[in-house]
Amino acid sequence: MSPAAGYDPKIIERFAEQLLRKADNVRVGCAVGGGVFGVFVGAVPLTPLKSVWGLPAGFGVATIIVGALVGILIGWVIGEGRAFRYRVQASAVAEAVATATAHAPSPVLEEPPKLPSVPPLSPAPAVTEEPAEEPAKPPSLPPLSPVIESPRPTEPLLRPPGSPLPPLSPSPEEPPLSPAVGD
How far is C-alpha 132 from the chain's CA centre? Predict the structure, then answer.
């Protein structure tokens, strides 16, 4: 059974169309959201925060319009980037449906073509028995090399628990390696 055998292509195509509609809605929604945000930013000169920008209140309507336009533009660009992902998913779904329907066997069963009638066969000629040849011997394989185990080390590689560590530095009873160190 093929992986796409249990799926209806029409349902999957509707899903792809839904993804395309979602891409359009995301783009428009981001533009509207950016416009609303731009209106709020452009309205700052009309609020008590007008000291932030230092513009007179007469420019308030102009800043609202400019803020809305800039917000719409930025929202449209952000929405287009997010909508692109949905369009890619929709095209991948549509391509998968197209390949699944192209490879799926047709539901209509055709009758197998009728073979042309063949005249009856004549009896086979008598076969005389000849001595059978001996079967050919398979080529001989080279001899296997013997397995040699490496000798195990006589000393253990790890020290057993509880045994003393080897000295890391000379002990005070040992003389220094050079006479200058002891001075």
Answer: 62
